[in-house]
Write a structure and sequence with these properties.
Layout lengths: L2 H22 L10 E4 L6 H8 L3 H7 L1 H4 L11 E4 L1
Antiparallel strand pairs: 1-2
Length: 83
């Protein structure tokens, strides 16, 4: 994984962990804007999910309207919501 992708994935995981800790401690968490990911050439839902720590099926369900009926067909430039 290239360094930029590695850092992005790490930052996203840290952010999710911080939200979980705040919830467990009973602290309110500010609403966050939905995370998005722009599909690049060669991407698959599985690879994107692995990179971002999200199951590919959750990615597909969250983006079914964008992706269409076949989860194996995603196109570069599509912007996916990361659940």
């Amino acid at each position: 994984m290239p360094p930029v992708e590695w850092m992005t994935a790490l930052e996203e995981r840290v952010s999710r962990l911080e939200e979980r800790v705040a919830a467990l401690e009973g602290r309110p968490t500010p609403p966050t804007a939905p995370r998005t990911y722009t599909v690049r050439p060669g991407d698959t839902l599985w690879a994107i999910g692995q990179r971002l720590g999200v199951d590919w099926r959750r990615l597909y369900e969250a983006n079914r309207d964008t992706i269409g009926p076949d989860p194996d067909v995603i196109r570069p430039g599509q912007v996916l919501v990361v659940p």
